[in-house]
Design brief:
single chain, about 350 residues, seven-stranded mixed beta sheet, about 30% helix, four-stranded antiparallel beta sheet, Aminopeptidase, alpha+beta, 2 domains, 9 helices
Amino acid sequence: MELNIREAKIEEAHTIAQAEREIAQEPGLFCSMPSELTDENVVNTISTFIKNKKGIYLVAELEGQLIGHAFLEPYHVKSLSHVADLNIVVHKGWQRKGVGKQLLAQIVLWAKSSGIEKIQLNVRATNFAAISLYRKFGFTEEGRLKKRVKINHGYIDDIVMGLSLCQNLKEDKILVREIQKEDVKKIIQTFCFPWSSFQETTKKWENYYKDHQENIRSVYLIEFEGSIIGYANLFRESKYPEFQNASIPEINDVWISSNWRHRGYGELLIRHIENMARIEGYKQIGLGVGLYKDYGSAQKLYFKLGYIPDGKGITYDYAFVTPGEKYPVDDDLLLWLTKSLD
């Protein structure tokens, strides 16, 4: 179902408020009572977003009908300005049809491009569908507010969930982020390997950065205390024919410096890329892995993360091998794996 996700208009306040009032009739879904969800409040909220130009208020529209809305509001306090609160509502009758997923994907993409480092939200502990959706996007439970919501027959806990968009770990010493122009020279100097000339390495990374700017691929770097220790990329135009035909993005050219291997950083990098692909709406992701001993650790990691062979056999230089023919056992001899992102 292809929706039109766009910014909300002030004149849509009544429709939005009415949708919230209908949902609030079911105890526990909203903190507010239906009578407390006024058109005026929604008008003021949308007006504030338009005036301040901080945060975003989106609606999901299908054939002229509003069927969902969401807004992301960064904190105004300087020390918290990297954090934004998320509210998302799928209108009655449209739940479990992918509306929330599409709204959330657009919200996260906007947050990434706007420098937001963390999204947080509160969700009722009984809202299992919403909790499942948030977890698929990488949100994790960060706390629980016991008996926060009072309803007729008792209380409901509120779960606090958060999504880190920069994947900071270990007291902010580890950071996964997108490549910047100033990184290219440093990467060329750091990752010029014996099997590749300086000229070839320079050309490779200049092309990578060009592809990154054109959204053909997204290049991600992993840093420790500001030093780049590895990289990988999400390649949206795979050269592998099966991925091309099925529009499956490829995790491509994963590398962790030898001194930093076997510490979970490769897994961190891959999971980050999976989450970015999920946010973009991809339902599957894939990669190719070499077949000789040096790829042993990578093979075990990929199977651990849920990747399985695509059943098409192996390729050499992206072409399927022919039984009885001879091929070099090198980096171009690959087995292709896929993973569901649902």
